[in-house]
Amino acid sequence: MNDQAPFSPHKNFAENLRALCVRHGSIAAVCRALGMNRQQFNKYLSGSTLPNVATLEKICGFFRIGSESLFHDPSVFLKPKAEPVFGGLPLHGLSIAANALAATQPTTLRTGCYQLYSLWSRDEGKCLREALFVQKTGGVTVFTRFTKYRAVGQRQNYYLSGRHDGVVLEQEKAHFLLSLKRKGCNEVSLVAIGPENALSQNFLSGLALGMAPSGTPQAVRATLQFRGCSDVLRRTIREAGILPLSDQSIPEEVRLSLTLPLRSPVAHLEAFSLLDALPAAVRS
Questions:
Q1: Which of 68, 111, 114, 166 has the most crowded Cβ, counting Cβ within 10 A?
Q2: Around Cβ 119, how many Cβ atoms within 10 Å?
Q3: Is the pLDDT of residue 248 over 90?
Q4: Which whole-number Å values give the CA distances from 181 to 23, 123, 157, in the listed order?
Q5: Distance CA 106, CA 250 (A)
Q6: Residue 191 CB coordination number (10 Å)
Q7: Which residue ranges make up each domain of the chain?
Q8: 265 has a pLDDT exceeding 50
Q9: Distance between CA 120 and CA 243 in Å, rounded?
Q10: Domain 9-77: which CATH class?
Q11: What pLDDT score does 83 carry?
Q12: Domain spanning 103-272: which superfamily?
């Protein structure tokens, strides 16, 4: 006899959606960000109805998840967060983690506002421009990254948006911007950049590592451009969004760093190897 409860798409969707809203902060905040009617949204949360395809894509785009995952078994979708990494490591694992952190050095990345450009994975003819604010607090360099998944200048509710909070680490020739997304499912992302890969002082190029909409890891080329102090933050956020690589507001150096083939002889625009910083014993 099979005691397993029958699959219920309405029930699974409702429970998973409610959990995502709780993680985000509140149901009201999600409705405001999506520009959706609260009464209609409550019907989704109660399991009495399912959204149409367009609304489903809108919700999943906001939380940066695949639509099929909302219909998974809630006990799997809402599995508890793992134990802290260091707490679960064996002694030799703790030693490796401690040595890795000890090998980092005070970052030389300037505080202030940056624009982070990366190739748009859904269209090779476009790029994503994000706003990045770097500051020092308590002796640590931290940053906030603001993202708008809409065309630059588009006047509408940008329900596809994101915010990452993170820390800047540095080791030898690389800066590592490690962050956690505050909206959605707390995705981790990493931007690895090297100053020797750019032509001028205000540009840093490397790789952005994150998760594709399908949920698979991906790496794209990325370039940081320094814009100035905190007084330009509002303007930098306003200019964030998706834009064609041919857009005249993109500096030529950024365009080259994102589009030149890796086999190009212009070595300073190629993505550097992160393996170079590892001990020979580890590389082998």
A1: 114
A2: 19
A3: yes
A4: 11, 23, 20
A5: 31
A6: 26
A7: 9-77, 103-272
A8: no
A9: 9
A10: mainly alpha
A11: 42
A12: Quinohemoprotein amine dehydrogenase alpha subunit, domain 2 (2.40.128.120)
pTM of the model: 0.59
Please, which residues have CB within 8 angstroms of residue 84's CB and are 6 or more apart in sequence? none
204, 89 in Cβ contact below 8 A?
no
Per-residue pLDDT tens over the stretch 144-183 = 898 887 887 666 544 456 788 888 888 776 888 988 877 6
Q: Can you read off the two tokens belonging to residue 179? A: 């962050």
How far apart are the C-alpha atoms of 32 and 132, rounded to whole Å?
24
Q: What pLDDT was estimated at residue 131?
A: 93
The residues, any chain, with a CB within 8 Å of residue 283's CB and separated by 6 or more, are: 275
What residues contact 236, with CB distance under 8 A and at least 6 apart?
Answer: 113, 114, 115, 131, 133, 227
> What's the token pair of residue 127?
């790029």
pLDDT at 246: 92
pLDDT tens digit string along 181-203? Answer: 776 556 778 898 875 555 567 88
9-77 and 103-272: identical CATH topology? no
Q: How confident is the model over 14-49, as pLDDT tens digits?
A: 888 888 887 776 788 888 888 888 999 999 999 888
Pairing of strands 217-228, 203-211: antiparallel
206-212 long-range contacts (CB < 8 A, ≥24 apart) are 206/174, 206/175, 206/271, 206/272, 207/271, 207/274, 208/116, 208/118, 211/64, 211/187, 212/121
123 by Cβ neighbours in 10 Å (0-12 / 13-18 / 19+) ranks as exposed
